Amino acid sequence: MPSTIAPSAQIEEPASPAKLKLIRQFMQLIGLQDRLDTGSFLERYAIPGGPMWAVAPGEFTESLSDEFKARFDALKAAYAKRRAAYQRAYEDHLNWEFTEAELKQINAFLEKPVGKHYLDGRWRMEAYTTTNTEDMEQDIVKEALASLKE
After folding, report:
1. Reported pTM
2. CA-CA distance, 108 to 64, in Å (whole number)?
3. Domain match, 24 and 78 both
4. Domain assignment of residue 92, yes or no
5. Mean pLDDT, 10 residues at a time, over the chain (150 residues)?
6. Contacts with 60 (C-beta within 8 Å, 6 or more apart), sequence order
């Protein structure tokens, strides 16, 4: 059975102070605020093999952890100039997406043990299944690439 996408509230006017407080509470509850505060969502660019690793094999002059740290620190410094824009983008979208009443209900759910379990369980499910299906995904990509050559 196909799922339907819930419609957004599409609120164009700026959030009231009370709604902005709910938006920020929601961002905190789902872990988004921490990712924005720390820039941790940028880590994937600093991981070996990523776009910031244009070094030939054997050219490492530092340990991998030092190389990662240097790249991640550079990312965080570049991000700092854009930090407020990221915050506004998420706050504006959440204001557009949800009504104040919806945010109250969602936040109330997320603050309860079952809501916290939902967030942790969803994260664990993604982490474990991604790890457990990694080989299959590589096989899928390999098979798809081979079919393009036929």
Report:
1. 0.80
2. 43
3. yes
4. yes
5. 85 97 97 96 87 68 79 94 97 98 98 96 92 92 90
6. 67
